[in-house]
Amino acid sequence: MGTIVFFGDSLTAGYGLKDPLKESLPARIGQILMSEGMDYHVINAGISGDTSVSGLNRLPDTLKIDTDIFVLELGANDLLRGHPAALVSHNLQKIISAVKATHPAADILILGMKLPFWIPDERAPGYRRIYQDLAVQNHCELVPYLLDGIEGRKHLNMYDGVHPLAEGYKIMADTVWPTLKKMIKDRT
């Protein structure tokens, strides 16, 4: 049995869902894996509110888990808190490097984010390419935009317009699954 660790913030943890154990992104991926007959255990290591700094600080405990695929989803809260893109990129690189050092056989999937449509480029310089650049530099797989098809659609998001409802997480899982499935197939 393999292990997939989802390491992220509220979008991984399943903030605001009635049943994160069944409706969060890691839970939905676990359900897909089971339906496909793939023998993987999925761990939800998401903490709401995490930034790249707090994620880096709690990483050592997560690295104790024997990991085959590490899914990294952090950075959105950094943007909302005004952290510079260079700091976010630096912290995410340190996370990737630590995963590679601790679990050299593990594959890494980066779940990218985009600037919300209401934030102009001038307000957050450098954020547009963080995830793409990290994926290329580290030979990681990338889902360019985790909220593709969800952002801005009221019926798929909570009242805050940021966190998906259960139906939004279904779309999110459908967005992530093709890349993750390819990674699993490539491991066999």
UniProtKB/TrEMBL annotation:
Q: Where is the SGNH hydrolase-type esterase domain?
A: 6-171
Q: Which InterPro entries match?
A: Ester_Hydrolysis_Enzymes (IPR051532), Lipase_GDSL_AS (IPR008265), SGNH_hydro (IPR013830), SGNH_hydro_sf (IPR036514)
Q: What's an example of a GO molecular-function annotation for this chain?
A: phosphatidylcholine lysophospholipase activity
Task: Give the domain of life.
Answer: Bacteria
**One Pfam family matching this protein:** Lipase_GDSL_2
Which BP terms does GO give this entry?
A: lipid metabolic process
> What name is this protein filed under?
Arylesterase
